[in-house]
Amino acid sequence: MFAQLLTPAYLPFVLSFLIMLGIGLIEAIGLGLGHLDLDWDSAVDDGGSVLAWLGLGGELPILIWLTSLLGCFTLSGLAVQQVASAVFDAPLHPGLAVVAALLVGTTLNTFVANGLARIMPGFETTVISTDDLLRRRGTILEGTARRGSPARAKVIDQHGQAHFIMLEPHDDAVVITAGETALLVRREEKLFYAVPDRPTLLEPI
Protein backbone atom coordinates (compact mmCIF):
# COMPACT_ATOMS: atom_id res chain seq x y z
CA MET A 1 0.00 0.00 0.00
CA PHE A 2 2.83 2.41 0.85
CA ALA A 3 4.49 1.81 -2.53
CA GLN A 4 1.14 2.48 -4.20
CA LEU A 5 0.94 5.91 -2.53
CA LEU A 6 4.22 6.88 -4.17
CA THR A 7 2.85 6.39 -7.69
CA PRO A 8 1.82 9.43 -9.82
CA ALA A 9 -1.88 8.55 -9.47
CA TYR A 10 -1.72 9.17 -5.71
CA LEU A 11 0.91 11.93 -5.66
CA PRO A 12 -1.53 14.93 -5.43
CA PHE A 13 -3.16 13.43 -2.36
CA VAL A 14 0.12 12.57 -0.67
CA LEU A 15 1.24 16.18 -1.19
CA SER A 16 -2.07 17.42 0.20
CA PHE A 17 -1.56 15.27 3.29
CA LEU A 18 1.97 16.60 3.80
CA ILE A 19 0.76 20.21 3.49
CA MET A 20 -1.96 19.46 6.04
CA LEU A 21 0.64 18.09 8.45
CA GLY A 22 2.81 21.18 7.89
CA ILE A 23 -0.04 23.54 8.73
CA GLY A 24 -0.84 21.51 11.83
CA LEU A 25 2.79 21.72 12.92
CA ILE A 26 2.83 25.49 12.40
CA GLU A 27 -0.24 25.88 14.60
CA ALA A 28 1.12 23.44 17.21
CA ILE A 29 4.37 25.33 17.72
CA GLY A 30 2.46 28.58 18.13
CA LEU A 31 3.27 30.56 15.01
CA GLY A 32 -0.44 31.26 14.73
CA LEU A 33 -0.65 32.24 11.09
CA GLY A 34 -4.38 31.75 11.29
CA HIS A 35 -4.60 35.00 13.25
CA LEU A 36 -2.30 37.20 11.20
CA ASP A 37 -5.11 39.15 9.56
CA LEU A 38 -6.58 41.03 12.49
CA ASP A 39 -8.96 42.90 10.20
CA TRP A 40 -10.63 39.73 8.92
CA ASP A 41 -14.30 40.52 8.92
CA SER A 42 -16.75 38.12 7.34
CA ALA A 43 -19.01 40.23 5.19
CA VAL A 44 -20.88 37.20 3.92
CA ASP A 45 -24.53 36.49 4.44
CA ASP A 46 -24.58 33.41 6.65
CA GLY A 47 -27.99 32.49 5.31
CA GLY A 48 -27.04 31.64 1.78
CA SER A 49 -23.68 32.88 0.52
CA VAL A 50 -21.18 30.58 -1.16
CA LEU A 51 -18.55 31.22 1.53
CA ALA A 52 -20.98 30.40 4.31
CA TRP A 53 -21.96 27.20 2.49
CA LEU A 54 -18.29 26.24 2.28
CA GLY A 55 -18.01 26.67 6.04
CA LEU A 56 -15.85 29.80 5.72
CA GLY A 57 -18.28 32.18 7.36
CA GLY A 58 -15.87 33.68 9.87
CA GLU A 59 -16.61 31.10 12.59
CA LEU A 60 -13.33 29.18 12.19
CA PRO A 61 -9.78 30.47 11.87
CA ILE A 62 -8.71 30.26 8.25
CA LEU A 63 -5.99 27.67 8.83
CA ILE A 64 -8.29 25.31 10.71
CA TRP A 65 -10.72 25.53 7.80
CA LEU A 66 -7.88 24.95 5.32
CA THR A 67 -6.56 21.97 7.30
CA SER A 68 -10.04 20.47 7.29
CA LEU A 69 -10.34 21.01 3.53
CA LEU A 70 -6.97 19.39 2.85
CA GLY A 71 -7.89 16.42 5.01
CA CYS A 72 -11.21 15.95 3.21
CA PHE A 73 -9.49 16.33 -0.17
CA THR A 74 -6.87 13.73 0.76
CA LEU A 75 -9.40 11.19 2.01
CA SER A 76 -11.67 11.76 -0.98
CA GLY A 77 -8.78 11.35 -3.40
CA LEU A 78 -7.64 8.09 -1.84
CA ALA A 79 -11.23 6.81 -1.87
CA VAL A 80 -11.71 7.80 -5.52
CA GLN A 81 -8.54 6.01 -6.61
CA GLN A 82 -9.36 2.91 -4.58
CA VAL A 83 -12.84 2.70 -6.09
CA ALA A 84 -11.44 3.28 -9.58
CA SER A 85 -8.87 0.53 -9.06
CA ALA A 86 -11.57 -1.88 -7.91
CA VAL A 87 -13.90 -1.07 -10.82
CA PHE A 88 -11.46 -0.46 -13.69
CA ASP A 89 -8.44 -2.43 -12.38
CA ALA A 90 -6.42 0.83 -12.48
CA PRO A 91 -6.54 4.23 -10.76
CA LEU A 92 -7.77 7.29 -12.60
CA HIS A 93 -5.46 9.78 -14.31
CA PRO A 94 -4.21 12.20 -11.59
CA GLY A 95 -5.99 15.16 -13.23
CA LEU A 96 -9.35 13.41 -13.27
CA ALA A 97 -8.84 12.14 -9.74
CA VAL A 98 -8.05 15.65 -8.48
CA VAL A 99 -11.24 17.06 -10.03
CA ALA A 100 -13.34 14.29 -8.51
CA ALA A 101 -11.63 14.66 -5.12
CA LEU A 102 -12.20 18.42 -5.14
CA LEU A 103 -15.92 17.98 -5.75
CA VAL A 104 -16.31 15.31 -3.09
CA GLY A 105 -13.84 16.85 -0.62
CA THR A 106 -15.32 20.35 -0.81
CA THR A 107 -18.80 19.00 -0.15
CA LEU A 108 -17.55 16.84 2.72
CA ASN A 109 -15.62 19.76 4.18
CA THR A 110 -18.81 21.83 4.31
CA PHE A 111 -20.21 19.47 6.91
CA VAL A 112 -16.90 19.05 8.74
CA ALA A 113 -16.21 22.81 9.00
CA ASN A 114 -19.73 23.63 10.14
CA GLY A 115 -19.51 20.81 12.66
CA LEU A 116 -16.21 22.13 14.01
CA ALA A 117 -17.71 25.61 14.35
CA ARG A 118 -20.48 24.18 16.53
CA ILE A 119 -18.22 22.15 18.83
CA MET A 120 -15.61 24.91 19.26
CA PRO A 121 -17.40 27.57 21.35
CA GLY A 122 -14.23 29.63 21.55
CA PHE A 123 -14.60 30.50 17.88
CA GLU A 124 -18.31 31.33 17.80
CA THR A 125 -18.54 35.04 18.45
CA THR A 126 -15.02 36.27 19.08
CA VAL A 127 -14.35 38.49 16.07
CA ILE A 128 -12.91 41.71 17.46
CA SER A 129 -11.77 45.05 16.16
CA THR A 130 -8.04 45.62 15.90
CA ASP A 131 -8.36 48.56 18.27
CA ASP A 132 -9.70 46.21 20.96
CA LEU A 133 -6.11 45.03 21.43
CA LEU A 134 -5.05 48.47 22.65
CA ARG A 135 -4.43 48.71 26.39
CA ARG A 136 -3.55 45.01 26.41
CA ARG A 137 -0.12 43.54 26.95
CA GLY A 138 1.89 41.81 24.28
CA THR A 139 4.92 39.55 24.62
CA ILE A 140 7.81 39.86 22.17
CA LEU A 141 8.27 36.42 20.60
CA GLU A 142 11.39 36.94 18.54
CA GLY A 143 13.77 39.71 17.64
CA THR A 144 14.18 43.08 19.29
CA ALA A 145 11.70 45.91 18.88
CA ARG A 146 13.20 49.33 18.14
CA ARG A 147 11.78 52.44 16.53
CA GLY A 148 11.79 51.76 12.83
CA SER A 149 12.44 48.04 13.41
CA PRO A 150 9.33 46.24 14.72
CA ALA A 151 9.34 42.79 16.27
CA ARG A 152 6.70 40.09 16.33
CA ALA A 153 4.57 39.93 19.48
CA LYS A 154 1.72 37.84 20.85
CA VAL A 155 -1.38 39.42 22.41
CA ILE A 156 -4.25 37.62 24.15
CA ASP A 157 -7.66 39.22 23.60
CA GLN A 158 -10.65 39.30 25.95
CA HIS A 159 -11.83 35.95 24.60
CA GLY A 160 -8.54 34.22 25.37
CA GLN A 161 -7.50 34.00 21.72
CA ALA A 162 -3.97 34.76 20.61
CA HIS A 163 -3.20 37.44 18.01
CA PHE A 164 0.20 37.98 16.44
CA ILE A 165 1.20 41.55 15.65
CA MET A 166 4.18 43.71 14.77
CA LEU A 167 5.23 46.01 17.58
CA GLU A 168 7.55 48.98 18.07
CA PRO A 169 8.38 50.95 21.24
CA HIS A 170 6.35 54.11 21.76
CA ASP A 171 9.47 56.05 22.77
CA ASP A 172 12.40 56.50 20.39
CA ALA A 173 15.11 55.52 22.88
CA VAL A 174 13.41 52.37 24.20
CA VAL A 175 14.33 48.84 23.15
CA ILE A 176 12.07 45.83 23.91
CA THR A 177 13.75 42.43 23.68
CA ALA A 178 12.39 38.91 23.16
CA GLY A 179 10.44 37.64 26.17
CA GLU A 180 9.57 41.09 27.49
CA THR A 181 5.97 42.27 27.80
CA ALA A 182 4.72 45.69 26.83
CA LEU A 183 1.45 47.65 27.06
CA LEU A 184 -0.05 48.53 23.67
CA VAL A 185 -0.81 52.24 23.66
CA ARG A 186 -1.50 53.15 20.03
CA ARG A 187 -1.76 51.79 16.52
CA GLU A 188 -0.96 53.00 13.02
CA GLU A 189 -2.53 50.69 10.43
CA LYS A 190 -1.08 47.21 11.17
CA LEU A 191 1.75 48.46 13.42
CA PHE A 192 1.33 48.75 17.19
CA TYR A 193 3.34 50.92 19.59
CA ALA A 194 3.91 49.87 23.17
CA VAL A 195 5.43 50.87 26.49
CA PRO A 196 7.56 48.10 28.09
CA ASP A 197 6.58 46.60 31.44
CA ARG A 198 9.59 47.52 33.51
CA PRO A 199 9.90 48.70 37.12
CA THR A 200 10.09 52.48 37.31
CA LEU A 201 13.43 53.58 38.72
CA LEU A 202 13.01 56.33 41.29
CA GLU A 203 15.45 59.16 40.81
CA PRO A 204 17.25 60.20 44.01
CA ILE A 205 15.88 63.37 45.52
From TrEMBL:
Tell me where the transmembrane regions lie.
Answer: 12-33, 92-112
Q: One Pfam family this chain carries? A: YqiJ_OB
Q: Does the keyword Transmembrane apply?
A: yes
Q: Which UniProt keywords apply?
A: Membrane, Transmembrane, Transmembrane helix
Q: Which residues form the Inner membrane protein YqiJ N-terminal domain?
A: 11-105
Task: List residues of the Inner membrane protein YqiJ OB-fold domain.
Answer: 134-195
Protein origin, superkingdom: Bacteria
Name-wise, this protein is DUF1449 family protein
User: Per its UniProt record, what InterPro entries does this chain match?
Assistant: YqiJ_N (IPR048376), YqiJ_OB (IPR010840)
